[in-house]
Amino acid sequence: MDLQQLAADIKRWGHELGFQKVGITDLDLSSERAALQQWLAEGMHGEMAYMERHADLRTRPDELHPGSVRAISVRMNYLPAEAGFAKTLKNPRLGYISRYALGRDYHKLMRKRLKQLGERIKQACAELDFRPFVDSAPILERPLAVKAGLGWTGKHTLVLDEQGGSWFFLGELLINLPLPVDAPVEEKCGSCKACITICPTQAIVEPYKLDARRCISYLTIELKSAIPEELRPLMGNRIYGCDDCQLICPWNRYSQLTAEDDFAPRKDLHAPELLTLWEWDEATFLKRTEGSPIRRIGFACWQRNLAVALGNAPHDPAIIAALEARRGSVNDMVDEHIDWALTRQHNKSASTSKQVLRLTRAVEKGLPRDA
Known about the structure:
Number of helices: 15
Distance between the termini: 98 Å
Strand content: 5-15%
Low-confidence stretches: none
Order of helices and strands: HEHHHEHEHEHEEEHEEHEHHHHHH
Radius of gyration: 24 Å
GO biological process, one term: tRNA queuosine(34) biosynthetic process
Largest sheet: 4 strands, antiparallel
Family: Belongs to the QueG family.
Pfam families: Fer4_16, QueG_DUF1730
Strand order of the largest sheet: 1-2-7-4
Shape: elongated
Number of strands: 10
Binding site for [4Fe-4S] cluster 2: 199, 215, 242, 245
Mean pLDDT: 94
Structural class: alpha+beta
Binding site for cob(II)alamin: 58, 135, 153, 159, 170, 217, 242-243
C-alpha cells in the first residue's frame, strides 16, 4: 500500500467531511509528562479530579486503543458570523456565553464525522483499526494537534494557527497504520503577551501556564462548588465560559467563520437579558439547553453563575426583587451567591444615593441665596 498517497487521501476526505485542517502524528507524548505532573502537583487543576486520576494515561495515547501508532488530528471552525462579542460584553445587563457554546454541542457532530472518516479509510484499507476521540477520554489533544502541524501552543495554552486563529474544535482518530507524519509548525507568538494582560482574573500565571482555579471558564463550567468570593467581581457578565484571551489575540484577525449550521447561535442564548435567564425554572433550563453543552453544568451552577452576573450588574430594584424571589428555591450554594449579589446591589444603591446627595449639595452651594 502507498501510505504516502493514503495520507494525502485522508486529508482530502477530511476536508470533504468539514474539517478545515487535518494532520498526522505519532503518539509519543513523553515530553509533556513532566509539565503535566508539575501542573497537577501545584493543584492548578482545581476540582477536576479526572485530570489527576488518569494523569499517566494522558501521555500514553497508544494505551487508549491498543495497536494504535498514529493519530489523525483534525480541527473544525466554530466561530459564527454573528458572534456579537462587543455587544454582549459591553452591556452588563446581558449574559455572555462563550462563543463555542452558542449552538449545538460539538461532541456528537465531530465524533460522527471522525467515525465517517475512519470508515472511509477502512474502505481503502481493510486492515485499518480506529477509534475517534472528541473530549471523550484522557488524551492530550492539544499537544497531539501541535505535533500534527495544526498549529502551535499559544501563551494562553490554546492551539493557534496563522491562517485560522484559535476559534476551532479539535478531535482525533487513533489508527493502527504507520502513516507518514506531518511536521510541527513554527511558534509565532513572539513577544506578545496580550492574552496574559487581558485575562480578567489573571489566570494565565506565566506564558503557557494556566491556573484553572482562576479561569472563568473553569469557574463557570467545571467548578461545582461556590465560586471564590474575591473572583466574583472580576467575572462581570460572563455566565458560561470566557473568550477574552482569544478576543485579544492578534492571530484571530485571520479566523475563519464556521460553515456548520449547528454552530449558529440559538436565539435564547445569544445576547440574552440576565433577568430573562434568571426567570427560567429548571424545566425551562433543560428544555432551552437541550443539545447544548451548557446543559451539562446543571441548573444549580447555571443559577450560581447568573447570580454573580446580576450582582455585578448596575443597581436595579428589579434585579433585587428577582434575586429575593428566587432565594431558597434551589440549594444553599445558590442562596449564598444570591446573598452576595444582593449585598452588591444594595451597596451600589447606597453608593448611588451618596453620590446624588454630594452632587445636590455641590449644586446648592453654587446657587445664589435667593434661588
